[in-house]
Structures are given as C-alpha cells and as structure tokens.
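Entry
Fold in token form

___
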Amino acid sequence: MPLERHLPRYVLELGAAFLAYTLLLVGSLLALRHEAVAAPWREAVSLLPMLAGIAVAWVVLRTFRRMDDCRRASSWRRSASPSWAPRC
C-alpha cells in the first residue's frame, strides 16, 4: 500500500499522540510543582508522559511497517545518513 493512502491517518495519529504527550507532560509538571500528589504516587505521575511517548513511537513504527520495500529502504537511508552527505 502506498504511503500517500495512509498519510492523513498517520498525521492525525501522530498529532493526537503529540497532543496527549504535551497535555500529560504539562499536567504532571503542574501537579508535581504544586505538590498535589501524595508521596507514593509522585514517581507514577512523573512517568505518566512516557505512555504518550510510547504511543508516538508506535505510530511511527506502524507507518514504517506499512511502507513498501523501496520506500522503506529509501527512508532508512535518509534517516541514517547525515544531511550533508551526497545523495545518489
């Protein structure tokens, strides 16, 4: 399946994951700063944004798996090489 077919869905999923990460990060920082969280739960609240970070990685990996072999190889080469390297 071509990537163009999944691009709008990918953008929506990635945007939702980043929005969730931002909201969880700000919420956990505010809760920890104002000490609204009891001592045993502070570690859990501080790690809460990592759930959305895992969702971001899941969306990217799922989109990468949906690519065809040629596009996957080209994307991998572009991400692995420095931006100043000459392109073939």
The chain has one domain: 3-77. Helices lie at 3-33, 42-47, 49-66, 69-80.
